[in-house]
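A favour, since you know our C-alpha cells better than I do. Go ahead and set the record down below.
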Amino acid sequence: MLPEKALSVRQPWAWAIMFAGKDIENRSWQAVNHGLSVCGEIVLHAAKGMTQQEYEDAADFMASIGVTCPPPYDLWRGAVIGTVEVVDVVRESASPWFFGPRGLVLRNPKPVAPVAVNGALGYFDWQSRRTDQFPEPARWMLPRGRPQPEAPRTHDLFTATERERPT
C-alpha cells in the first residue's frame, strides 16, 4: 500500500529522484515552513507541467554531473511514479543536487506503475486527486521525424496491464 501523502516534483527532476540518484529536493524557505519539513515515506508525483526551458536547464545540469537525462517524451507527467523517504531538511549539503536554500534529504526511491493524478502544491492526499488520463505531450516534447510514442519508454518497468489505473 502506498503512503497517503504525495509531493509533486517537476520533470525531469522527478525522474532523477527515481532513477539517477537525486538525493535532495530543493525547496524555498517558505515552502519548508509550510509543512514540507515532515519526514517519512511519501509518494512522488511527477508534475504535469514541464517547459522546454526547464527541461533543457535540468538536462544540462545533469550532463554536468555525468547523468544522461532521457528525452522529454520518455518522462511520465501528471502521475504518481514512486515512493521515497524524506529523512531530513537541510540548509547545506555536499550533494551535487543541492541548490538550496533548503533541501529535503531523500532516501530509498522505489518506482511504482504510474497512476494518473492531478498534483498540488506542498504535500497532498493523492488518492482524492486521481484522474483517468495522463497529459498529452506538448509539441516540443515529441521526437522529431517519428510518430508520437504511446507512453514513456525510458525505465519502462511495467507491462501494459500494470500501467492501467488501479481500481
